[in-house]
Amino acid sequence: MKKLTVLNVAYPFAPVGTDAVGGAEQILTQLDYALAYAGHQSLVVACEGSITAGTLVATPPVNGTVTEERRRWNHEQHRAAIDHALGRWQVDVVHFHGIDFYAYLPAPRVPLLATLHGPRSWYPPELFSLGRNDLFFHCVSASQRRTCPVDAPLLPSIPNGVSREYGRVRHGKRPYAVALGRICPEKNFHVAINAAKKADFGLLLAGQVFHWDPHQQYYRCEILPRLDHRRLHIGPVGFVRKRRLLAAARCLLLPSLASETSSLVAMESLACGTPVVAYPAGALPDIVEHGKTGFIVEDEAGMAEAIHAAAELDPEACREAARTRFSLDRMIRRYFDLYHQLAREPVHA
Questions:
Q1: C-alpha distances out from residue 205 to 184, 232, 253, Å
Q2: Which site in 27, 122, 127, 133 is 20 to 30 Å from 239, CA atoms measured?
Q3: What is the CA radius of gyration of the chain?
């Protein structure tokens, strides 16, 4: 089969690499490494500080508050980097992962694929009517696709998958729950802290607070005042530490208010043999098998009760669900098939 040159384009404001924080960045990283391992040419447009297996075309990082002016400037830098890559290499497909990808689309030249990693409500209403025959969209879950217009021009969904490496670490369970992700209002992590207190149980909150004012304010007002000697924020964690943290926890708490399109951390937790206690947000009820691999709860009190109930669930049932339902190898094969398909598509200016 033909060797491909694929240009993956990251969200301008978050680095990619094996210790990336966001789900979109983690998926991009897995595709970058898989392309390079398979002998394809992998190119990545991402901010400085990113670590890639293929060739990094770096754009400036963001170290302070993201103003609208700074956002527009970074979009321009991203567009220039994409144009540079298209001019230097014979690219077969450009694959966008950022939620703002429509702000830095290049002129028609090669097929463009946009993975919709975020909820439909996070994209502009006119997303599916841009009038470009070189641009293709797809979702990452059935629940996400159901939120899109019935006549939206969507390719078949490609569900996310997680590495089998998560299942290789075994730990005895310790008396703490874990909450993991971006520290921001829609993730609702203060409810996880409250639930752990109600359950008289330890909690380790792992995640980064980005330089956006709403995130900083949420952390100062809702997270910091609730922390104590048993409920701790331990900051962002990389792959190795995250795997140990998940494997030893009694359960993962996900009180998200966002319409989750997928949840890599839920899949990673199951792969580590750790049940998931989650609100019924977006795809989470499709990931968590209630009473078998975790619990879907409606409120803080239900989450507190489920922390104790999680001790009765079988870690091996969680690992088996991850192995059979959330295969990273299957995800990568489907992306590769799609890349080959799109590389044959004619593009007209």
A1: 12, 6, 10
A2: 122
A3: 20
131/12 same-domain check: yes
CATH number at residue 236: 3.40.50.2000
CA dihedral 185, 145, 78, 341 (to 10 degrees): 150
Query: Exposure of 232 by Cβ count < 10 A (0-12 exposed, 13-18 middle, 19+ buried)?
Result: middle
Yes or no: say if 43 and 6 are a contact pair by the CB < 8 Å rule.
yes
CA distance 228 to 94: 46
Same domain, 179 and 321: yes
CA distance 37 to 48: 23
Q: pLDDT value at position 162? A: 94
**8 pairs with which residues across the strands?**
44, 95
- Predicted pLDDT of residue 33: 97
The total number of residues shown for the chain amounts to: 349
pLDDT value at residue 346: 73
**Is 263 inside a domain boundary?**
yes
Reported as type and span, the H/E element at residue 206 is strand 202-206
pLDDT score of 151: 87
Question: Nearest to residue 238, comparing CAs of 207, 277, 204?
Answer: 207
Q: Give residue 119's identity as a one-letter amino acid code.
A: P
265: three-class secondary structure by DSSP: helix
Whole-number pLDDT of residue 224 = 98
pLDDT at residue number 139? 97
Whether residues 247 and 265 share a domain: the answer is: yes
Distance (Å, rounded) from C-alpha 23 to C-alpha 118?
Answer: 10
Residue 349 belongs to a domain: no
93: DSSP letter: E
Q: Report how many domains make up the chain.
A: 2
* Residue 348 forms part of a structural domain: no
CA 207 to chain centre: 13
- Residue 349's pLDDT is 58
pLDDT profile of the chain (349 residues), mean per 10: 94 90 92 98 97 97 80 96 98 97 96 96 92 94 92 94 82 92 95 98 94 91 98 92 94 95 95 97 96 98 98 96 95 98 79
Q: What is the pLDDT of residue 170?
A: 76
